[in-house]
Amino acid sequence: MDIREHTEEMEKSVLSPYACCSADSKGRAVHEEPCQVRTVFQRDRDRIIHSKSFRRLKQKTQVFIIPAGDHYRTRLTHTLEVAQIARTVAKALRLNEDLTEAIALGHDLGHTPFGHAGEFALNQVFPGGFRHNEQSLRVVTQLEGGKGLNLTQEVQDGILNHTGPVQPETLEGQVVKISDRVAYINHDIDDAIRGGILNEEDLPRDCISVLGNSYRDRINVMVMDLIQNSWEKPFISMGAVVREAMDRLRQFLFDNVYIGSEAKREEEKACHVLQYLYTFFVENPARLPPEYRSLCETVGVERTVCDYIAGMTDRYAIATFGKLLIPSSFSIPEQVYS
């Protein structure tokens, strides 16, 4: 018996009957020989971590667009916080931690530069509409490395359904879906306070009385409630009291941070940058990088341009915009001076 087989046997004896065991995976679109050491979900996690799309998350906005400080969250640090929370919950519920982590690490790979402002901008101009969860699935099935990552069906399902009305098929995917919300509600409050957008005293008292007075306390209450209400059940959910308090706190963020606050003052410019780039490259597909020019032949120009822009980091989008729109200085040959 090799190491992978031993791990698969151990999962069957240790994990909850509601967990998704690695040996029971529905598999990949393209068959691969099993690894002697890693389970299928371990391989998925590793492929995501080693992907270029994952590395680019460090230069993509979470809430604050290109913040001056070093401690604001980016899309990458958000992803790591989601993975940490989700893995804690999965371990407590005896679910498959590797599957949970793979979904969490891959859930935002398709996010645009400039966060949800970029998603809104592309959704306005791309005829098919743009949703970052669908783009994340597109990244792992087709775009990364020119052919996708050939991930298991369970990880793909969790990535696609981490947001929206459809529940993931696995409990591990459901854990990530709720952990995503737990993470961004709490770290966006933390960043908004750091940025002077909010004070602790501004937070709604009815929510704080349930969830706690500090960042640490609120995460702890939400995670513990999630574990207690999901224990030995075929679904993942919070209790009504904590869930309602969390939902009210989320709405408070929309009303005071996500829409119309000082944190969002640059969003109109960000939208203009992405929409200009979209229009330019649709009209000038020959200016796309070679790998994207070849993609035009199979999926069309508009889809290709949308893929190209969605994959950009904040600073690459700004640099590309500047290169196309801002004139460069004229360099005078040295012999003119002689």
Major sheet: none
> What is the fold-level CATH name, i.e. the topology of the domain at 36-268?
Hypothetical protein af1432
**Rg value:** 22 Å
Count of extended strands: 0
SSE order in H/E notation?
HHHHHHHHHHHHHHHH
Instruction: State mean pLDDT (0 to 100 scale).
Output: 95
- The CATH homologous superfamily name of the domain at 36-268 equals Hypothetical protein af1432
Shape: globular
| Unreliably modeled segments | none
> Structural class, from helix and strand content?
mainly alpha
The level of helicity is: 55-70%
Structure description:
The protein is mostly helical and 338 residues long. The protein is 59% helix and 0% strand. The termini are far apart. The model has no long low-confidence stretch (mean pLDDT 95).
Short structural summary:
The chain has 338 residues and is an all-alpha fold. Helices cover 59% and strands 0% of the residues.
Labels describing this entry:
single chain; 338 residues; mainly alpha; Hypothetical protein af1432; 0% strand
Describe the protein's topology.
Elements: H1 3-14, H2 40-49, H3 52-56, H4 75-92, H5 97-106, H6 115-125, H7 132-143, H8 153-160, H9 171-194, H10 205-211, H11 215-230, H12 240-258, H13 267-283, H14 290-299, H15 301-310, H16 314-325
